[in-house]
Specification:
The protein is mainly beta. Helix content is 0%, strand content 54%.
């Protein structure tokens, strides 16, 4: 795939038939969802139930969802679906800016996914205007062995990076201008968080439930 622009709910959609695809060098801009369904959303890229997909060097700008009843807005939404786990997904060197919603907002969201990599991505300005939450990178509790490395997350209104799954790695990232820089959730276990530069976040730089390894991070209030 080459450059793409869109003004509908999802810029690029991949499903199970897309196993092994490479999605690279796309420009996706002005994704606006105005519907009110609780199970629909706006997304720059939506990937459902696939394996061995690479997302590289894509630029996603200005994704929004304006209705308070909608699911929210995503720069990239990577979901294994009700029956199919995502496997071996690589998200590399993507730039995501200006994701906003009246409910929840995500720069990158990963759900029901194992053995995936998020690396070298820049995520900037993720906000919500209602009572929801805004995440730069969110990894749900049904994910295992997800690696987040060499990313920059700047100005996410709530969490910069949140991991709820197990056996993951958060390493060599820069997180700044969020409420909480890196949040390791109470459900998370045996994750390694190391060598991150986490600074200028309002409530906390890193929070951990105590069952993970958090070492050698550069933390500045």
């Amino acid at each position: 795939m080459t450059s793409s622009t869109a003004n509908n709910a999802q810029g690029i959609l991949l499903s199970g038939a897309s196993d092994g695809a490479v999605v690279a060098n796309n420009n996706i801009e002005a994704i606006s969802y105005t519907g009110s369904s609780a199970v629909t959303f706006g997304a720059g890229i939506y990937c459902l139930g696939t394996e061995r997909i690479t997302f590289a060097n894509n630029t996603i700008k200005t994704v929004s969802s304006s209705h308070a009843s909608a699911q929210g807005a995503y720069g990239m939404y990577l979901w294994g679906g009700a029956a199919n786990l995502l496997q071996d997904i690589t998200v590399s060197n993507n730039t995501i800016t200006a994701v906003s919603s009246a409910t929840d907002s995500y720069g990158i969201s990963m759900d029901e996914a194992n053995d995936c990599i998020i690396e070298g991505c820049l995520i900037r300005t993720v906000t919500e205007s209602g009572s929801g939450t805004a995440w730069g990178i969110f990894v749900d509790d049904d994910c295992d062995r997800v690696k987040i490395t060499d990313c920059q997350v700047i100005a996410s209104a709530h969490e910069g990076i949140e991991i709820e799954g197990d056996n993951g790695t958060i390493q060599d990232n820069i997180v700044s201008g969020c409420d909480v820089g890196i949040l390791i959730d109470n459900t998370a276990d045996r994750n390694v968080t190391t060598a991150n530069h986490v600074y200028g976040n309002t409530s906390a730089q890193i929070t951990d439930n105590g069952t993970n390894q958090v070492t050698a991070n550069n933390l500045t209030a």
